[in-house]
Specification:
- Belongs to the triosephosphate isomerase family.
- Keywords: Cytoplasm, Gluconeogenesis, Glycolysis, Isomerase.
- One of its GO terms (molecular function) is triose-phosphate isomerase activity.
- Homodimer.
- This protein is an alpha/beta fold.
- The longest helix has 18 residues.
- The chain has one domain: Alpha-Beta Barrel (TIM Barrel).
- It is about 40% helix and about 15% strand.
- Helix 1 packs parallel to helix 11.
- It has an eight-stranded parallel barrel with strand order 1-2-3-4-5-6-7-8, surrounded by five helices.
- It is built from eleven helices and eight strands.
- Bound molecules: 1,3-dihydroxyacetonephosphate.
- The site of 1,3-dihydroxyacetonephosphate has 14 residues, from strand 8.
Length: about 250
């Protein structure tokens, strides 16, 4: 059985006080369950403090992006070594907003997956198609291509430790969710791609999240699907109340 993984991607929201008070409330109420791993990905400025605050809890902390080399003259960037050293456990890589606004390419995502594993971070690799690609029947090719490139050179031992997030770009922040069946079909195709790259066992082990307008009222249907092992959530991860409802849904059998 794959353990579900629910990750909140705060994007560029919350003041320092808001971040701290969210975390204190969530830590006091979050159900601890064998069924779900819970992760919060705050703006990088708050990573150290929140990692410290959650150190002895069941909540993990993730970065929203990072650079792919250990150190160097890259003004404004942070590295996987720095994240790991600050108590961060996960990193979102290749989010469509990073690809769109910060020119992140499949090649750089691949370098970052290597860098994440080098410093024991769990990469959450985002893939997904635009509306135009979906309408032209290109979803399968696009997503398979992104997965293949992201995992290039990643060993059999490490591959199943990664998490893949399928986020159709047209469903992010729009209130439009892919139907659970459509999301499941693409997540199943991602699993097949992993099976082709590695083997059936690894394909069966790797966890695949869905992301894009996930809310407390649609998560259960998504989770009931065979290939969906959790969610990567933007908007609904910003309030403790809705975030806790999402955790509870994942904690259920
Ligand atoms: O981009 C997302 C998570 O990474 C999804 O955002 P929303 O849940 O706000 O649609």
């Amino acid at each position: 059985m794959r353990k579900r993984i629910l990750a909140g991607n705060w994007k560029m929201y919350k003041t320092a006080e808001e971040a701290k008070s969210f975390m204190e409330e969530v830590l006091s109420k979050v159900p601890v369950s064998e069924n779900v791993e819970v992760v919060i990905c705050p703006p990088s400025l708050y990573l150290s403090e929140l990692a410290q605050l959650t150190k002895d809890s069941s909540v993990g902390i993730g970065a929203q992006t990072m650079h792919d080399v250990k150190e160097g003259a890259f003004t404004g960037e942070i590295s996987s070594a720095m994240l790991s050293n600050s108590g961060v456990n996960y990193v979102i890589l290749g989010h469509s907003e990073r690809r769109q606004y910060f020119n992140e390419s499949d090649e750089s995502v691949n370098r970052k997956v290597h860098a994440a594993f080098e410093y024991d971070l769990t990469p959450i690799v985002c893939v997904g198609e635009s509306l135009e690609e979906r309408e032209n029947g290109k979803t399968g090719d696009k997503v398979a291509g992104q997965v293949k490139k992201a995992f290039e050179g990643i060993s059999q031992d490490l591959a199943p430790k990664a998490v893949i997030a399928y986020e159709p770009i047209w469903a992010i922040g729009t209130g439009k969710t892919a139907t659970a069946e459509d999301a499941n079909e693409v997540c199943g195709a991602i699993r097949t791609t992993i099976g082709d790259l590695y083997d059936e066992k690894i394909a069966g082990e790797i966890r695949i999240q869905y992301g894009g307008s996930v809310k407390p009222d649609n998560i259960e249907e998504l989770l009931s699907m065979q290939h969906i092992d959790g969610a990567l959530v933007g908007g609904a991860s910003l309030e403790p109340k809705s975030f806790l409802k999402l955790v509870e849904a994942c904690a259920h059998e």
